[in-house]
Amino acid sequence: MIRHIVLDVGGVIVYPRLGEWNIPFGAAAILGERAKDIATAAYLLAHRRAVRWLDESQRIDTVEEERVLRRNYIREMDAAMGWHLSEADIDRLGDDFTDNINRYGFFNDVLPWLNRWKGRYSVSVLSDCLPSLRSFLGQWGVLPHLKAQVYSFAVGATKPDPRMYEALLRALDAPPEEVLFADDRADNLLGARAAGIQAVQMARAEFLPAELWDGPVVRTFEALNAHIEALNGA
Predict the structure, then answer these.
(1) Which domain covers residue 47, as residue numbers?
(2) Do 56 and 146 share a domain, yes or no?
(3) Per-residue pLDDT for 23 more than 90?
(4) pTM over 0.85
(5) pLDDT tens-digit profile of 98-127?
(6) Residues 69 and 53 sit within 8 Å (Cβ to Cβ)
(7) What is the distance between the alpha carbons of residues 145 and 138, in angstroms, rounded to a whole number?
(8) Do 13 and 131 meet the contact criterion of CB atoms below 8 Å apart?
(9) 22 in a structural domain
(10) Across the strands, what pairs with 179?
């Protein structure tokens, strides 16, 4: 019997408006002509080297700590791309990452279903992220609906590391067979399955996963609800 619904955030609750998670929403306005470099081969190579600053398995607590990491990432990108950004521009880009909620799109079926599930299931999140995402969940009105919040920056690991699922089960104080986890990434779902947790892939039309897994797949929260009801024999 499924009693606890656990949701990934990226690809399940939100999606990147610009199509990629690490591009600041205000990049075009701040970079000007230099924004044309985004998504070029040189940009992607520079990102691959600089993204270590944004490692979501590092233990941090606050948005202010994240702000420093974002600025270090941009500073390294600036050096690699030859943008010659001022410190003020680096600060603006960093703050755009941490403070500008517009870089995310919020799926419009989330809050209606969180309200419908109230009293029927507990709902929690299990997410690889840095602290700014937690503050955005608060702005969207998601946090009051949650029983547990398990974030990689607090655990010190990212999915599919078993520590993430262990932390989730401790937070829920529930056996794994009563838990269903929805994520868009196949490897994260396999990690949940290995922990004894029921898993289903969310394949939103607005942000399709890179690969489908061999288990159940849904595309909306309505379909997710139907899947849970079928598991519970309703």
Answers:
(1) 27-99
(2) no
(3) no
(4) yes
(5) 999 999 999 999 999 999 999 999 999 999
(6) yes
(7) 10
(8) no
(9) no
(10) 4
Q: Are residues 47 and 141 in the same domain?
A: no
Report how far residue 114's alpha carbon sits from residue 108's, in angstroms, rounded to the nearest whole number.
11
Quick one: 225 and 116 in the same domain? Answer: yes
Looking at the fold, whether 92 and 131 belong to one and the same domain comes out as: no
Amino acid letter for position 16: P
Domain contains 21: no
Helix orientation angle between 186-194 and 162-172, rounded to the nearest 10 degrees: 60
